[in-house]
Amino acid sequence: MMATYLGFYDVPEGVDVGGRYDEEFAGILTRDALQFVAALQREFRDHIRYAMECRRDVQRRYNSGELPGFDPATRLIREGNWACALVPPAVANRTVEITGPVERKMIINALNSGAKVFMADFEDALSPSWENLMRGQVNLRDAVNGTISFNDQARNRVYKLNGETAKLFVRPRGWHLPEDHILVDGAPVTGCLVDFGLYFFHNHAKFRATQGAGSGPFFYIPKIEHSREAKMWNRVFERAEKFAGIEKGSIRATVLIETLPAVFQMDEILYELRDHSIGLNCGRWDYIFSYIKTFQGHPDRLLPDRVQVGMTQHFMRSYSDLLIRTCHRRGVHAMGGMAAQIPVKDNPVANEAALELVRKDKLREVRAGHDGTWAAHPGLIPPIMEVFTSNMGGKPNQIQTARREDAGKITEEDLLQRPRGVRTMEGLRLNTRVGIQYLAAWLTGMGSVPLYNLMEDAATAEISRVQNWQWLKYGAVLDGEEVRVRVTPELFGRVVEEETARIQMEVGVEKFKRGRFEEACRIFTRQCTSPELDDFLTLNAYNQIVVCHPKTPSKI
């Protein structure tokens, strides 16, 4: 008699699933779906390993004094007369895109928000617990099928999709993040291959028949540092298209330019993805994080307070202008950055001031030539939409009208220019307060966190962490204070103690006790004071949220 097992996933040979068993999850983690993910992992794991070693090697060179720059070996690609595949009509208009984690209520509200695109996020806006990742896949499957709903018992309200919704894009994790709950041949599978593979396997056919109008699925690709990493994604897409029996170039992706090395590789990235690209995006918060990380060995490049490093800084404006020129020259969208403000409900004056900042930022973007932009909250969509539509001459994008040939003169020096500003005690305190609170939320399953009227995700927490580390490493002088003081471990220790007390006062004693604030404080402090800079906050803290279950089945 054949043994039957309760509560365990049906896995192909060489695959182990250590995450908690759930019947809904089993509908995602089918044998065939896991076989597809395992095939991707086996085909690309050596290429991924090599790409990560290349990252480490180039960072060692930067730490020794080398500067990023354009690669002479790929000059012909930058200067060549080539174009990406035509943008699919279904996504020609991307004026406002809303982003958020793959939570059920969030997905419904975002798709109903009036934005042109919703980017459902497995990356910086999601804490990658097993529950969040698998429920996210269930939620996306239901969204693509049009059956998703959410019963909010606290508000006595049922949420469902409207007749007209935003186009769905999905952002998997970056190449560097593992998924420890799923092993292939005894080793953790690469997180982005799980996110992409499961979503594509279950949804490509339905998506193409409904949202994609024969194209898609659509993706956002994060944390690219070199065109070789874009080439890997291109090969993954081709492999998936062949598996599904759909036309080459069906899958389309927008790459986030959110690392400093990538800004020198934009033409090369588009070239590698030319059959699958629909543009680049200014991931500006991660870009600031990457600027600090890239120059971690350069004490002459200490940044001012993070609130002073905006798009009016010369190196940030140069990055945006060059991205627009590059994308439009190659026939694809140039997407603007995130508006992270959230409505200030109890203060109309403060709310209007925040909205005015958003309008000015988006007016700058559309006049510069961006084809669309990001919003973190549905309340920002109407004012942003008005700014873009009133400045685009009735066209869905500016690909043909804003060529930005003047940006062809942008140099390496423009892209690397040191930002101007001062460092203050309040900057150190804000970094510490935001970093600890975000990490505490992340450890308890939240990856997108409202703090001080801004929607914070891992990117802003990363800026807080690496800037504190940089100031501590080089004993930065807080030159924005009347009495200048140097950042020392002793000063930082006092700041951590005082800001932790402030957090407890702000959130309340009971919430502080129930949360993981003390654990977050220890992790954040350790990372800020470490002799060597950790590559990513979330990579270091990931082990704190991995929960694997026994694999021994029970016979019945």
Q: What can you tell me about this protein's structure?
A:
There is one protein chain. This protein is an alpha/beta fold and 556 residues long. It has 20 helices and 19 strands. It has an 8-stranded parallel β-barrel, surrounded by 7 helices. A hairpin with a 2-residue loop joins strand 8 and strand 9 (187-190). Helix 7 runs parallel beside helix 9 (266-272). The chain is globular.
Mean pLDDT: 95
The largest sheet is: 8 strands, parallel, barrel
Give Rg in angstroms.
23 Å
Strand content of the residues, in percent? 5-15%
Helix content: 40-55%
Number of strands: 19
Q: What would you call the structural class?
A: alpha/beta
**Low-pLDDT windows of residues:** 1-6, 552-556
Strand order of the largest sheet: 3-4-7-10-11-12-13-14
Tell me, briefly, the overall form: globular
How many H/I helices? 20
